[in-house]
C-alpha cells in the first residue's frame, strides 16, 4: 500500500519496516506521471516485504533537500530507518522489481 509521506509521518514511515522506499515526485513532472502506476503496482505486489511511500516535493521541499533529491522522479531506499541509496529516473516495472528483489536479499 502506498502512503503519502510528509513532515508529520516521515519518522514513523521510515521506521515501519526493515526496508522502506520513498518516491519523490511533483504533479507537474511528466516522468513522475509515467512512474506512478509502476510504483503503485510494485507497492501492492511487495507490500509484505517493503513499505512504500510518496513525497510531493512541492509541499515538502525540506524533506527533498534533506535527502538531496535533485531530480525527479527519485526513489530513496531506507534500510532499518537509514537512507542507504538513491535512484533517479524512469525505470520499467521489471527493472525496479529486480532492483528491489536484490536489495531485499541484502537485508
UniProtKB/TrEMBL annotation:
Keyword Disulfide bond: yes
Positions of the Thioredoxin domain: 1-105
Keyword Disulfide bond: yes
Family annotation (InterPro entries): Thioredoxin, Thioredoxin-like_sf, Thioredoxin_CS, Thioredoxin_domain
Coiled coil: none
Record keywords: Disulfide bond, Electron transport, Redox-active center, Transport
Family: Belongs to the thioredoxin family.
Protein name: Thioredoxin
Organism from which the protein derives: Apilactobacillus xinyiensis
Lineage, top ranks: Bacteria, Bacillati, Bacillota, Bacilli, Lactobacillales
Name of the coding gene: trxA
